[in-house]
Amino acid sequence: MTQPFFDRLTDQVRTKKTPLVVGLDPRWSSLPETLKSVGDSLAEKAAAYRDFSIGILDVVAPLVPAVKPQVAFFEQLGWQGMQALAEVIDHARKLGVLLVMDGKRNDIGSTAEGYADGWLGESSAWRGDALTVSPYLGDDSLEPFVQVASDRAAGLFVLVKTSNPGGKMLQDLTADGSTIYQHVGGLVERLAADSAGACGYGVTGAVVGATYPEQLGELRALMPHTWFLVPGYGSQGGTAADVAPAFDANGLGAIVNSSRAIIFAHARDEFANLDWQQAVEAATRKAIDDLSSVATIR
Ligand SMILES: O=c1ccn([C@@H]2O[C@H](COP(=O)(O)O)[C@@H](O)[C@H]2O)c(=O)[nH]1
């Protein structure tokens, strides 16, 4: 019997001794030139995205608990991109690194069932260990995801407080005396508390941006059964000090994503003497070291 996702994540974070997650966000304009030596048809771009992502996986799988493929960049290339994503997922599974699919899906409940099966269902080629979902269609839209995730020992990360500057336009509005992100956080925490496993965390996690450290601390206190996925560290300006409030007393309860700062490290001056995979490894180790100063994992 497979352990619940957040129990597996806890084990992986303890084994790898880091909360760092590497984001797989291939972008044609930033790819190493050696991978772009072919043409730029959709098929050729998809093959380059596959090779790039697999090359990253080979480097980071022994170092980090999970990777976060950004579905948008694969969807952008149509069916060839989705084929490439399936191959990347397959490779990650063989390497034993957990997969957080960043798709930010949702719809009315009956349609949400389709998304849940497509991204978490046993027979899907795009099955992740966890999926990001939007809360803005309400509690009934989350139910199919919770059901499938519970049945499949998968996890969810619901958007609560996103890292982008414009997120506050809606998420910080006040209704019935609380902000929208506090209401969403309360809903996610109730679902997590109802399903908490051996590690103390439930089936629903929350996305909370590193760019809002004050709210990270506030939500950590409000959401003790909810694991956080923290994007915005690195390229968006979030620092190790900013993400420090996301962790619980055991240095657990949060994973911290970094995408561009790691996968395109070959373009950083400090790694200019390295090939692109060596640069990925150096940037990953640097981020692990940086985060170790704020998350003491027990
Ligand atoms: O609030 C959010 C939710 C998701 N993201 C995603 O995370 C990565 C961040 O990439 P970086 O290169 O490390 O900035 C990307 O896939 C976003 O779509 C987010 O940034 N903020």
UniProtKB/TrEMBL annotation:
It holds the Pfam family OMPdecase. InterPro entries: Aldolase_TIM, OMPdecase_AS, OMPdecase_type-2, OMPdeCOase_dom, RibuloseP-bd_barrel. Residues 19-275 form the Orotidine 5'-phosphate decarboxylase domain. Its EC number is 4.1.1.23. Keywords: Decarboxylase, Lyase, Pyrimidine biosynthesis. Pathway: Pyrimidine metabolism; UMP biosynthesis via de novo pathway; UMP from orotate: step 2/2. This is Orotidine 5'-phosphate decarboxylase. It comes from Aeoliella mucimassa. The lineage of its organism: Bacteria, Pseudomonadati, Planctomycetota, Planctomycetia, Pirellulales. The gene is pyrF.
